[in-house]
Each structure stands twice: as C-alpha cells, then as structure tokens.
Amino acid sequence: MEMHQIRYFLKAGETLNFTRAAEQCGVSVPSLSRGIHQLEEELGGQLFRRERHLTHLTDLGRLMLAHFSVMSSAADAAKREARDYVRLAGSRLKFGIFASIGADVLTGYLTTLRDQAPELELHIWEANCEELEAALLGGEIDIALTSSPELDERIRTTPLFREAFFISFAPGHRFNQMNAVPLRELEGEDYVKRLHCEFPSNLARLGVPKPYNGVNIRYVGEREDWIQSLVRAGLGCAVMPEYLPLLPGLEIRRLVDPEVFRQISLATVAGRPHSPPVAAAVAAARRYRWPSGSTRQSRTTA
C-alpha cells in the first residue's frame, strides 16, 4: 500500500463524499477511486459501501480508519522531524556554561547533542551563573547549563543532576585524618578561592553562613589548573565540586554537617519559542544519562 492511497481513504472516510475528498486531495475522482480500490484489493475487502448518493464505511473500513489514522500521524511527525533535522545544517547554537562544570560531564552531553544534530554549529560561552542569567534574558545566548539556586522567574529550568562539594588539600594536611570534613572545620584555614566559585551561594540556600568569614583567603584565581596547583603545593585548601577533574596528588574529603551540594539545570527563557537548535539541545539533555548519586570517594587523586 502507498501513503497516497491511505491519504485518499482517510479523506474519503472523513467526508464520506468521493467528490469532496478528491477536491481536498487535489486529484480527480477517478484517481481517488482507483487508489482506494487498489487499497481494497490489497486488504481483501471493501472499505466503503455506496448506496445511491450515500457513502458509508464498512466494518473493515472503520477498523482500517483507526489504524491508518495512526500511520498518517506518524508519517507526518516523521516528516516534521526530518525537516527540523535538515534545518539544523548550518544552524548555530549559543550555549552558555558555568566555569566549574566537569569536563567529562560536559563532553558526554555534547557527544549526545552531536548525535542528535551532527551539523549543528556550537558556540560555547563560559561565565559565572549571574552572567549566564543576564545573557539568556538579553538574547546573547540561547541556552545554558547553570548551578544557580535562584534564577529570574522568566527563566525555565530543567533539573539534570545533583553534585556534592568536597574540600581539597595537600598531603599531610590535618583533614587527611578525617573520613569527611564538617563545614565548621574550615574556620581558620588558609583558603584558595576561585574567582567564579558557585560554592557560597549554595550555602545560602541551605541556611548556612558563608565560610569565607572564617577562612583566611590567601589567593584568589580564575584558572582551575593554578587553583589546584596552589592547593597541591600546600598554600591553602579549596572547595571542589564532585565531578570536576582533579590534578594528581590532591587529597579530597566530602563536606558534611551539612552536606553541601548544587543542582545542575538546563536553562532557557520561559515563553520564548524553542528554535530547532534549542529543541535539539533540550532533547539531547533528556536523552543523556547524567550522573546519579555520588561516585567520588574521599581519597588521594592518582
């Protein structure tokens, strides 16, 4: 059977008038009748009963109407998805990410996005969460990964995964004797602070005072390799998100009392229609297997 035969049958079943069905299909009445007759021959029974000026569906016709309606809807959906896929060729997606997302998590998601839209041109913009929020609302970026616990009400978020925080330090530090480090133990410690660290804002969500009032900030930096190198050299400790790749030789312990974590979400602007590139990014986010549960243990990195 051919799709045009199914289309003829569905239109005739809707109108119960071969003349009107032929007009709406853009064919002649003989062509429509011939297509339906060929369909009947393949199915082995009559689909319509014509009595004088009245046309009725037979029992077989009513049965086939349900099946063919599903087939037609599926075919239309396939065509729409194909058109959207083709339109992604040469399309550009401006994608914002926060500075401390783990590289393996990001590249895993981007691999899924590439499979979803292999011709998509991706522009990645790295910033802190406040800058990402402003860029989204201003139309500078199309979509973002964010860890901000509080966003403008105009931004729609899709939660992806939860990530715990650890404290990192050099071998020989007193934290090495602990299985986990209570947050209060950071008081008085020399600290290496990331310029774009999301850590303090997560404490506000938990109702915990920022530890920066109790630590001694010795160095402030932006580059992750410098931050971790300073920690490894014993110049201070630093908070690290769970899935951030670590330099060899760093000791890490989970922060507890309370456990501090961040929620990673995909953010778009509410009410703004999804372009095909944004729709592809959202679909890839739903398909990708984001981390679930803690995988990093308190240990020394190899």
Q: What sequence of helices (H) and strands (E) makes up the elements?
A: HHHEEHEHEHEEEEHEHEEEHE
The CATH architecture of the largest domain can be named as 3-Layer(aba) Sandwich
Q: pLDDT under 50 segments (min length 5)?
A: none
* Derived structural class: alpha/beta
Q: What percent strand?
A: 25-35%
Query: CATH homologous superfamily name of the largest domain?
Result: Periplasmic binding protein-like II
Determine the mean pLDDT: 87
Radius of gyration: 30 Å
Q: How many β-strand stretches?
A: 13
Contiguous helical run count? 9
Give the SSE map.
Layout lengths: L2 H13 L2 H8 L3 H15 L4 E4 L2 E4 L1 H29 L4 E7 L4 H14 L4 E7 L1 H9 L5 E4 L8 E15 L10 E3 L7 E5 L4 H8 L9 E6 L2 H9 L5 E4 L9 E6 L4 E9 L6 H12 L11 E2 L2
Parallel strand pairs: 3-4, 3-5, 7-11, 8-9
Antiparallel strand pairs: 1-2, 5-12, 6-10, 6-11, 6-12, 11-13
Describe the overall structure.
The protein has 302 residues and is α/β, with parallel strands linked by helices. It has three domains: 3-80, Winged helix-like DNA-binding domain superfamily/Winged helix DNA-binding domain (Arc Repressor Mutant, subunit A); 92-160 and 263-291, D-Maltodextrin-Binding Protein, domain 2 (3-Layer(aba) Sandwich), CATH 3.40.190; 163-261, Periplasmic binding protein-like II (D-Maltodextrin-Binding Protein, domain 2). 39% of the residues lie in helices and 25% in strands. The protein contains nine helices and 13 strands. The protein has helices spanning 3-15, 18-25, 29-43, 59-87, 103-116, 129-137, 199-206, 224-232, 276-287; strands at 48-51, 54-57, 92-98, 121-127, 143-146, 155-169, 180-182, 190-194, 216-221, 238-241, 251-256, 261-269, 299-300. The strands form three sheets. Strands 3, 4, 5, 6, 7, 10, 11, 12 and 13 form a nine-stranded mixed sheet that branches. A two-stranded antiparallel sheet has the order 1-2. The protein is elongated. The N and C termini lie far apart (63 Å).
